[in-house]
Structure of diguanylate cyclase:
Amino acid sequence: MTTPPVQQFSASVARYAAFIAMWLLVWWAAMLMEYQPYISLWYPPAGLSLAAFTLMGYRALLPVLTATLIAGFWMYLQLGSTLPFTTQLINTLILAAGHTLAYGLGGLYFRHTISKWDIQQLPQRILYFLVITLLTTLLAALFGSTAFVAIGAMSWTDANAAWLNWWVGDLAGAMVLTPFFILLLSQLWDYDVSWLRPNVQSFLQERAHTRLWSHKITLMLVLVATIITIDYLYSHAAIAYFIFFISLPQMWIVFTERLETTLLSLAIVSVFIASWFGFYGVDNHALTYQFAMCVIAANAYFGLSVPSLLSHNRKLHHQTRIDALTHVATRSHFIQTAEEKLRGQRSTDFPLSLIVFDIDEFKTINDTFGHLIGDQALIMAAQSVRTHIRQCDLIARFGGDEFLILLPEQNLAQARATAERLRESLPAIPTNEGMVQIKASFGIVEIAPGESINEALQRADQALLKAKRKGRDQVVSS
Ligand SMILES: Nc1nc2c(ncn2[C@@H]2O[C@H](COP(=O)(O)OP(=O)(O)OP(=O)(O)O)[C@@H](O)[C@H]2O)c(=O)[nH]1
């Protein structure tokens, strides 16, 4: 059912109005964190604007521009400006356009790159995000300080001195808060942010430390308060640098909590750093704290990619060990295990035997009943063998319809008996022409002293060939 246009329009208006209110709230909250008039460690609206353009695309233009215009007028009101209304309007427009243009360019470009991402490319995504944030905030600082000169609120000399601090403040706001706001906006308004989510669920489920989030965040806040207070009391640069150690408990959260919790704790800690710093009202070491906020956030983002890389790695590792069709071991895993067993066997003198078996007339099964039934025959044969061998034995798919079995502590006679048992227990597969019995030929060897796995495999293959030549469905030893 499609929504009527009037309803769609009012939903969009409500969404834009709510966004503007949120932007102004964030902007107002940022003012509470100022450590000197109009100066705070960071500029949180930068993160919200970048998040809005990333999620909404060009549709964010109107609400961001409107919010920045209202903020501009609000400032004039607070300052009790006596400038004529038209001058205030033009000045505010210039300032708002600078902010909107910079974050619009950055957000739209970031949005454009997202469509090209692969789910496993988290580290590249993070790098993209950091570079785009660096450039966007630089642009915002340059546009902003130029706009201030243009409206006569700053001289070129002042702008020259101010743009760097402006940049770092915007950078801290955007770097720490953009992912948090992206997640928040997507939860409020149902934007698709699957690209933001690393595939870490299985990894997190194995972690034991989840649900202690409140303890972890409390620890971080106590550390922040202690460091800033000691820095305020002793004002030594070395003490301020300790704020970088907040990365450690933050990493603990990254590795043990969900994405939402990680981004929320980053936001809380940064708000706490800025507010605590603002509370003391000093500007000693401001840059240290600003850069610490950026570095802690960037570290946390890269940390987020570790669990996803680990789980991807685990999947690949599984793929190299387990055959995708029959779920028995792969050839490479078999060879590796067999070599390890052979080394162990040489020190203990226990026998070690090998079986190679190949399904008889498998091509005919494929050609008569189709490849899906052929696949089914491979799966059933492998599973049947698996249930008839011991826990310590290993079955692997060598390729096609050929399988290998490793039998530790079995001599040739015992291996022969095992092979006979396996041959007799092979199942029948259901086809549209009734049940068809799977048959196979077996070649067996006992690995001789000094013989390598490859040499033993070649001997077993020769025995298998003999079994085929002798009419199939039988066991031949070598
Ligand atoms: N369905 C299916 N067929 C496969 C797969 N891998 C290989 N094959 C087919 O398996 C057949 C192997 O046939 P062969 O072992 O050469 O010959 P055969 O018909 O079994 O005859 P003998 O071994 O001499 O008894 C080929 O037709 C391959 O195309 C697979 O994963 N699934």
